[in-house]
From TrEMBL:
Domain of life: Eukaryota
PANTHER family named among the record's database cross-references: MONOACYLGLYCEROL_DIACYLGLYCEROL O-ACYLTRANSFERASE, TRANSMEMBRANE PROTEIN 68
InterPro entries: Plipid/glycerol_acylTrfase
Name this polypeptide is given: TMM68 protein
């Protein structure tokens, strides 16, 4: 009888070359059924090829985004170096602001319209609409710090201060949870301060109709009156298309009202176009009441929404605007 290795060496009727190679490898390495293993591996490759083809492009895109963000940082390296030479936390703020500004530019094509309305120095109270996740305000703070060299303090909800690991971040970026007297003190000291009167309730309950949910809140107006500072309304176009909340459902709304924690799930992270619009400052008027000033501010913010936001918001339209066309906002 002629064995397999001998058959591989016999003329035209010998076994195919690949089969012979498999037999030789089996003999050398002492493996049995090597051909079955290779067939199984080939089957697995065939099964998982679609998945591999889906994953690899996204991995490449992820690396590209990291590269682009790094380039944004490198572009401002001299500014970073100068910041660290003066104060540790100023350098840290500059670094984080640069990272966020890079992410804003790459992922959302973020823009701020009306930056000139933010004073170069001196106090102002910024009142903004609260998205499901206020990522627009993070971007805005980064812009303010980079382009005006100012830190915009912000009033945050109490629950944020209880999130593990957040204390240092909140301290470095000067977040506070009140009270009213503290807000007045900050403004009188010449700083910028931002407040969202709707807060977490507006974040959870408002939806693609962009309804303002302030209730009867007028404390922010009293702060502006006591500190004798102007109010600047602020709204970000498509912020509800970037992230949305299920907090408007009966269950999650009841949970929030009961425990004052945002239990509602959110979804999103869509790379929609984001534009922040700053309205004309509402000057200090000693004759106006807190109720009147709160209503005046709400009307100014609603005017920004009416002018710059499609109602109801549409995620697909916002994505198309980001990637396929630029629309002129009248």
């Amino acid at each position: 009888m002629i064995d397999k290795n001998q058959t591989c060496g016999i003329g035209q009727d010998s076994l195919p070359y690949l089969t012979c190679l498999i037999h030789v490898l089996e003999e050398w390495f002492g493996l049995e059924h090597l051909e079955d293993y290779l067939n199984f591996a080939n089957y697995l490759l065939w099964v998982f090829t679609p998945l591999i083809l889906l994953i690899l492009p996204y991995f490449t895109i992820f690396l590209l985004y990291l590269t682009i963000i790094f380039l944004h940082i490198y572009k401002r390296k001299n500014v970073l170096k100068e910041a660290y030479s003066h104060n540790l936390w100023d350098g840290a703020r500059k670094t984080v602001a640069t990272l966020w500004d890079g992410h804003a530019a790459v992922w959302h094509g973020y823009e701020v319209h009306g930056m000139e309305k933010i004073p170069e120095e001196g106090p102002a109270l910024i009142i903004f609409y609260h998205g499901a996740i206020p990522i627009d305000f993070y971007y805005f703070m980064a812009k303010i710090f980079i382009h005006k060299g100012r830190t915009c303090r912000v009033v945050a909800d109490h629950f944020v201060f209880k999130i593990p690991g957040f204390s240092l971040l909140l301290d470095v970026f000067c977040a506070l949870h009140g009270p009213r007297e503290k807000c007045v003190e900050i403004l009188r000291s010449g700083h910028l301060l931002a407040i969202s009167p709707g807060g977490v309730r507006e974040a959870l309950i408002s939806d693609e109709t962009y309804n303002i949910i302030w209730g009867n809140r007028k404390g922010f107006a009293q702060v502006a009156i006591d500190a004798k500072v102007p109010i600047i309304p602020m709204f970000t176009q498509n912020i509800r298309e970037g992230f949305r909340s299920l907090g408007g459902t009966r269950l999650f709304r009841w949970l929030y009202e009961k425990f004052r924690y945002p239990f509602a799930p959110m979804y999103g992270g869509f790379p929609v176009k984001l534009r922040t619009y700053l309205g004309d400052p509402i000057p200090y008027d000693p004759k106006i009441t807190a109720e009147e000033l709160a209503e005046k501010t709400k009307n100014a913010l609603q005017a920004l929404i009416d002018k710059h936001q499609r109602i109801p918001g549409n995620i697909m339209s916002a994505l198309l605007e980001r990637f396929h066309r630029k629309q002129k906002i009248n």
